[in-house]
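question for whoever is on the cluster today: can someone run the full assembly for these? two chains, 370 residues total. i dont have access anymore since they changed the login thing
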Amino acid sequence: MGMIEFTEAAKRQIRTFIEQDGAPDLAVRVRVANPSPVQPQYEMTLIELAERTAEDESFEAEGIPVVVDSESARILEGTRVDWVDTLQESGFKFHNPNIQPLGSEPLTGPLVERVKRVIDERINPSVAMHGGAVSLVDIRDNIVYLKMSGGCQGCGMASVTLTQGVKQVLHDMVPEIVDVQDVTDHAAGTDPYFSPAK
Amino acid sequence: MTRGDGDAPRRRVLLLIASSTYKAEDFLDAASTLGIDVTVGSDQQQTLAELTPGTSLQVDFRELDRSMAKVLELHADYPFAGVVAAEDEGVLLAAAVGETLGLKQTPPEAAARARRKDFFRACLQVAGLPCPPFRVFPLDADPAELATALSRSPGFPCVLKPLALSAGRGVA
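^ ran it for u. tokens below:
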């Protein structure tokens, strides 16, 4: 068994694609296009086996040659790939144990405490004047992921508050933070302080 | 002025956006991609303005002189290398700031004409360029009189638009 497990549905679909292509000696290249915990992106493409490079890792999944670059291989270890075909979605679905959903682990540690303190003591008292609030969702690789709620959720100026305010304050107070990303579902906001005109 | 990793000072742009904007994120993302610092000038005070001096400025798009004074005051500490209006609300102030600071911008007179749909159409007519027929009615026009007037030339069908605003806002 390789680093990636393909379900029967996934293998069936890959074989179909290979048959439709018709070329001999085809392999499936699997690549992690973006390992973001917010929305990881994967790519699966058919390549000719001759396109393999010395840096690639390769294995067979019941007769299907699979090629993975070394960086993707590290991230894909233990991943299960399924094929889904429903009214809502159609395509390969990756279940990757190495990319945990945001907030899936308890938030602890000195960096978390410092960021929380800045949010609670510096940011939220001001944001509250617009009926909003900011909460910490996760910190990964010194990137802060946060959610906005209340008047900030769906607000036309939320990105201004984030970029011109929250990011600046966090960078000033916790310099090792390299980025701040907003993972709020702004479309679900019901009481934005400033309603976008469109 | 903040500096990046290199020695070159980062440039700062004054971005004028209305609080009803839906474009802020796109403009701020673009500035980030280009490595440009931004001061957001808007008609409402930003929530964290007091904690982050230079990043935002409250202006009144209808009060050009007063707003210009605030822009110039901030410009002394945070020099602007450019000014951009995201919506038509800010184009007059952007043009005035551009002219005063010697920045690339639409001339104020052109901005004033372009912002008003009736002025702009009149310019097209004077220049002999194609332009749909139009008439201007006051906001408090009697709907019955307006309908009667419209029933004559150029007549229906017609589009009812506000004199300003963009992106289909206020259009019926």
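summary bc i know u wont read the tokens: The first helix of chain A runs from residue 8 to 21. The mean pLDDT of chain A is 91.
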